[in-house]
Design brief:
Helix content: 40-55%
Number of helices: 21
Shape: globular
Radius of gyration: 22 Å
Number of domains: 2
Largest sheet: 10 strands, mixed
Number of strands: 14
């Protein structure tokens, strides 16, 4: 078995229709900044980026000082935002700057230009590819909440499907304790870890690069960040690609309470049929119903008799977190299938495999990631604060969509207890937008297709490329059709005359690649959901998200 191994994915050819394309103009050069956008004070605009080789990888890194509060830049100490770049090799052939951002919210973006430059040499030749760690994250000024043990107890302490009064009370109290830790450890910083503040950091970065305009690529949460930046500073953006888009027309509460449905759909309509079709390899049942029953039997056994695996006590919450994380990509279906077998019979694999698996399962959500994630999603838009509402809502979602619905009370209770935010709502308006190309798969579990369609409808003139299957993140996934649309647009400004579609990648054949499967090489996304196991702090070479 080769669980969780980082291998390059096999190239799968994907059919795509030959659609007429047309060049679209950039936004007017004289478009005005949105009303209320603060100017960049001279002490920030006049700083110089001291570029040096990054600690790892073929990039240059620097740091910039930003105001704690862009609306009152003289108040409080400055924050640091870490930035990176991959320079186009020939300045004469360079057409501009392509800015990237990471998903999450809470993932690091610092190393990502290297992955994109490696994947798309034509883009690397045409653009300086730049990125950053958003305020609150990674090498930038961090926000701090609870330690890892408390985060583990909140999101992996047992069985979040347990709806007993005692279990519900414990979940709500752990969430409130997490918020108390955030206020104690980062109280003066918390109000400023928002999408609205981050887009002003992005515009300062653009200015310090000496770029009048930038183009933009962002996946997952970074679609919200990019859409907000484009509507706040439309004259500063030339072309925008939003990959796996959240529904930025509503609130975080509305978006995230839609996710239990989409994770259950991905699990039941994509993973379970694939698992049943490969029963000869995995022995989990020859029909989707039998495969689902085998999952539930394993889960029930972990509740009755938690598994002691190389120092990690594996509980039902660990299984659900791993399952929801692995269905982000069809390439990881073999990993999930193999995991089920190992948890049923740990002695069937070598000790080294068990140790690696135990480490992967140990922390359902990383403490550093959780601190930034909740700072953003709890403050960008309002949340319902009543305990009774969330107990009722989460009980219904847990019954209807148990894979992710069981975790709803833990996540929502954090935001329900969060200090009331004074941040301006990060609206995404449609006036004077630059050209926007959007991508989304039909069964994406995290950024569900219905929300992406609504986001598309809010951006007149945008084009939506619908991708078959359910992978979260469609570009840099070795889908030739998707890659062609994105790179034609970023290089030449060509977009389809109407919305278009691409076939999804075929699901893996275990017989062709070994029963252990492999980890997705280019699109391992960080959580934008009430799901997902602990993220890595930095993507592997070639990863996009």
């Amino acid at each position: 078995m080769h669980l969780f191994r980082k291998t390059a994915r096999r190239v799968a050819s994907a059919a795509c229709g030959l659609l007429a394309v047309a060049a679209l103009p950039a936004a007017p050069a004289n478009a005005a900044t949105a009303p209320g956008a603060p100017a960049i004070p001279g002490r920030y605009a006049d700083q110089r980026l001291d570029w040096r080789p990054c600690a790892s990888g073929p990039l240059e890194c620097a740091s910039m000082a930003v105001p704690r509060d862009w609306y009152h830049p003289g108040r409080g100490p400055d924050l640091t935002v870490a930035v990176s770049r991959h320079r186009a090799p020939d300045p004469a052939a360079r057409r501009g700057v392509l800015m990237m951002a990471a998903g999450g919210p809470g993932a690091s973006g610092l190393g990502r230009p290297a992955g994109l430059a490696s994947y798309a040499p034509k883009l690397a030749a045409a653009y300086d590819i730049v990125s950053f760690d958003q305020r609150g994250v990674g090498a930038s000024t961090n926000v701090v909440c609870s330690g890892q043990e408390k985060v583990d107890a909140l999101f992996g302490g047992g069985d979040l499907r347990d709806r007993s009064e005692q279990a519900v009370r414990a979940t709500v109290e752990r969430a409130r304790d997490f918020v108390r830790d955030c206020r104690r450890n980062s109280g003066d910083l918390l109000p400023y870890i928002t999408t609205d503040q981050a887009v002003h950091d992005m515009d300062l970065y653009r200015a310090l690069l000496g770029a009048g305009t930038v183009s933009y690529y962002g996946p997952s949460y970074a679609t919200y960040l990019g859409a907000r930046y484009a509507t706040r500073f439309p004259h500063r953006v030339e072309r925008v690609v939003l990959d796996s888009s959240i529904d930025f027309g509503g609130s975080w509460q509305e978006f995230m309470t839609g996710q239990p449905m989409s994770f259950q759909r991905r699990f039941e309509q994509d993973f379970l049929p694939w698992l049943a079709a490969n029963d000869a390899t995995y022995h989990r049942g020859g029909t989707p119903e039998e495969a689902k029953a085998s999952y539930e039997r394993l889960r029930a056994s972990l509740r009755e008799r938690p598994l002691e695996l190389e120092g990690t006590r594996v509980l039902p919450d660990h299984l659900d977190a791993a399952a929801t994380g692995m269905i982000y990509s069809g390439d990881r279906f073999p990993d999930l299938a193999a995991l089920l077998g190992v948890l049923d019979d740990p002695a069937s694999v070598p000790a080294a495999t068990r140790r690696a698996l135990a480490q992967k399962l140990k922390h359902p959500l990383g403490a550093a990631f959780a601190a930034d994630f909740f700072s953003v999603v709890c403050q960008d838009t309002p949340w319902t604060r009543g305990r009774a509402y969330w107990v009722r809502r989460s009980a219904a979602d847990s019954r209807a969509h148990p894979l992710a619905g069981a975790r709803e009370l833990a996540y929502a209770s954090v935001c329900a207890a969060w200090p009331r935010s004074g941040a301006p709502r990060a609206e995404v308006a449609a006036a004077e937008l630059p050209p926007v190309l959007m991508l989304n798969s039909r069964h994406d579990p995290a950024t569900y297709y219905e929300g992406a369609v609504r986001a598309h409808e809010r951006l007149p003139g945008s084009r939506l490329i619908t991708v078959g299957g359910g992978d979260h993140g469609t570009y840099q996934a070795k889908n030739a059709c998707v890659d062609r649309y994105v790179e034609d647009f970023l290089l030449d400004g060509r977009m389809p005359q109407a919305d278009a579609s691409c076939a999804g990648k075929p699901l893996p054949d275990p017989a062709a690649r070994g029963a252990g499967g492999g980890q997705r090489g280019a699109q391992a996304e960080e959580p934008l959901s009430m799901t997902r196991s602990v993220p890595t702090t930095e993507p592997a070479a070639g990863e996009a998200r």
